[in-house]
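Example protein as discussed:

>
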Amino acid sequence: MARIPDKIKSIDGSRETLKLAVRIMDLWFIGTPNKSEQAEMVTADSEGDQIHVVCKADQLKSWKAYLKENSTYVMHNFKVVKNDGQFRVCEHEYKLVFIGVTVVREAYLHELPFKEFRFVEFGNVVAGILWLACWLDIIGVVDQQFFPLLYIFGYYQFILSRILFAMLDDGYLYLILMNGEVLSCTLWENYCMQFLAYLNERGNDGPIVIILTHARIKDAQEFRERYFGYRLYSVPVKLDVVCVTMDTISKIVVDNHSWCYPACIQCHRKTYIQTGPFTCGCGKDNDQPVLR
């Protein structure tokens, strides 16, 4: 008789000969491919309980081709460790690590639920009710009127407004926003570049709805200290500093081979206006184009 799969909520670290029937909800890879790469995933069982699973570099070569997001599997035998890292993908007390005797078999398990977002309330984030070390799912509308998009130092910063509810009517999606409930969000590196590419392609075509999965809550003061090194009011300034102008830029030549281009001050879309006022496609009236 086949052994009944264990439930994720029953995992307590007392044994490692587990049998799990799960769906891979999220799958991502970190590290350098073919060198130090490892797989991280979130799996869920038939009751919707989730647990973090790690396949390190020494095991990944055996399983990488078989692991697919949204697919269902029967998995056996793991190393069970405490889920006490700096940041937690799941709330479960433990996480699982592939070992030499781990067995993974793809199986058709239609009863397993698909991924469900667990969106948090903006108010709970602002109030500090949520645990800062756990990654969260957040949905909102980019509010460019409340706070314009800001691109600087390789990151994008914007404000998300909370969606109270949405309704579909005659093929149009209507979003009702909750006034006053906003979050400041920052996208770094690849996510920043993907967002920038999307903005350049879409133009001014209605509101932007963003879903952030496994988002990290970071205190604003902690952010400033980590990425800029000093608190703004504690940067030492010597009163006897003398500034000398060595040269003056009289003109910046922009051509097809330049790394900069004239753009709108608000949406940063490229323009062919070199000097003088113009109105961008986003509706912003510019006195002069800015260089990007």
